[in-house]
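Hello again, I could really use a second opinion on something today. I've been puzzling over a protein and I'd love to understand its fold better. I'm sending you its amino acid sequence along with the backbone structure tokens. It would help a lot if you went through both lines with me. I've dropped the whole record in just underneath, so have a look.
***
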Amino acid sequence: MNETAFRMILARENTSIPKIASKTGIGKKTIYLKLKSGKFNQKEILLMKTALNLSNEDILTVFFNW
């Protein structure tokens, strides 16, 4: 998990974790905890992909340290 890349994408999309929590249905506290642990499951990653307009490259960079 690359938290810096995730936060850069939030800035690029002009959004915030509370807004993404609302769009995905994932609690904002849960997102903060998962950012620290680096453990998002496949369903959560797909929800983030849609909410943040992530490319496949973005997903690899953020969630898999590609």
Q: What stands out?
A: The longest helix spans residues 42-52. The mean pLDDT is 96. The CA atoms of residues 21 and 31 lie 7 Å apart. Helices lie at 3-12, 17-24, 28-37, 42-52, 56-64.
